[in-house]
Design brief:
Helix content is 30%, strand content 28%. By secondary structure, the chain is an alpha+beta fold. The chain has a seven-stranded mixed beta sheet, with helices on both faces. Strands 13-12-11-10-14 form a five-stranded antiparallel beta sheet. Strand 6 and strand 7 form a beta hairpin. It binds biotin. It catalyses: biotin + L-lysyl-[protein] + ATP = N(6)-biotinyl-L-lysyl-[protein] + AMP + diphosphate + H(+).
């Protein structure tokens, strides 16, 4: 985003009350008339800015429409999303992120899209990403102390971060292994972790997250109507996408740092507490279908189940008929 405008928003966000035009012009090293022009630009983007003679300016409300400045308003992260690109429409934010990562985009760069015309999920499934209804974004991560074989743990780390963020709303969110966030037995969000690695070193990871937010039942794609849900459907309220992204990025950054510093152990515990159908009997499909009890998750991200003979199994890529 235009960096002066971002500085302007940051400055206003970090101040209680009004900031005078004079102070803004000194802090940002621009003229008073440039301050005025930037304010007008922000108003056009949908910011509600109060300007009072002899007092100054303050932001009252951010637009419920995404753009780079609104997405970064009040963003308190240290690095995740501090470099952020917003695109009205892309094929997939994953593709954009891979492209940027190959061109050395830094750790924490985030790409957000209004809509995706070719959004993709795991196993090359289509991910429906209609304009303005949800959050579709990809983050570039460059963990230097994680081995490629442990990269899948990042999906679990992100799932815990998202689930814990959603606890502030009146919803009972669960994590369905390996990459789904579930509300009342329906899918609310999905995570797609893609990695570029050499034999023993990760070059970068693209962590893609899609979350259905302001969809009504009618907005859900025909093929997922029975299986998917949105925050609006579950709570009856609509949400400001900027604020939800802000909260998600905060939580993901915090959990990621915990994971990098302390490893997966602590988070594994949290994951198990949030797991969908923990302790229940499920059907696992490998070469045949068999009954298993879900008992936890292994350190390396595999699902731990026990069969009817009491024998324990670790599942890496099995299909589960939940
Ligand atoms: C899944 O549930 O299979 C994962 C879905 C991941 C969807 C997100 S939306 C942002 C990013 N861009 C994509 O094309 N996919 C991910």
């Amino acid at each position: 985003m235009e960096s002066t405008r971002k500085q302007l928003i940051d400055f206003l966000s970090n101040h209680q009350g009004y900031v005078s035009g004079q102070e803004l012009s000194e802090q940002l090293n621009i003229s008073r008339s440039a301050v005025w022009k930037h304010m007008n630009h922000l108003k056009k983007e949908g910011y509600q800015i109060e300007g009072i003679t002899n007092k100054g300016y303050r932001i009252i409300e951010i637009p419920n429409q995404m753009n780079e400045s609104s997405l970064q308003w009040n963003l308190q992260t240290k690095w995740l999303g501090q470099s952020l690109i917003y695109k009205e429409s892309v094929r997939s934010t994953q593709l954009v992120a891979h492209d940027l990562a190959r061109k050395d985009a830094k750790q924490g760069s985030v790409i957000v899209a209004g809509e995706q015309t070719s959004g993709r999920g795991r196993m090359r499934r289509h991910w429906d990403s209609k304009a303005g209804l949800g959050l579709w974004f990809s983050s570039i991560l460059r963990p230097d102390n994680i081995e490629p074989k442990d990269a899948s743990q990042l999906t679990l780390v992100a799932a815990v971060a998202i689930a814990q963020y959603l606890e502030k709303f009146p919803v009972d969110v669960k994590i369905k292994w390996p990459n789904d966030l579930f509300l009342n037995g329906k899918k609310l969000a999905g995570i797609l972790t893609e990695m570029q690695a050499e034999q023993d070193a990760i070059q970068y990871i693209v962590l893609g997250i899609g979350m259905n937010i302001n969809h009504t039942q009618d907005d859900l794609h025909e093929t997922v109507k029975e299986k998917a849900t949105s925050l609006l459907i579950e709570t009856g309220e609509s949400f400001n996408l900027n604020e939800v992204l802000n909260g998600l990025l905060m939580n993901i950054e915090r959990k990621y740092e915990l994971f990098i510093e302390e490893g997966f152990h602590e988070i594994k515990h949290e994951w198990e507490q949030l797991a969908y159908k923990m302790g229940e009997w499920i059907i696992v499909k490998t070469h045949k279908e068999w009954q298993a009890q879900l008992i936890g998750i292994h350190e390396d991200g595999a699902l731990k189940v026990r069969d009817t003979d009491g024998q324990q199994h670790e599942l890496y890529s099995a299909e589960i008929l939940w």
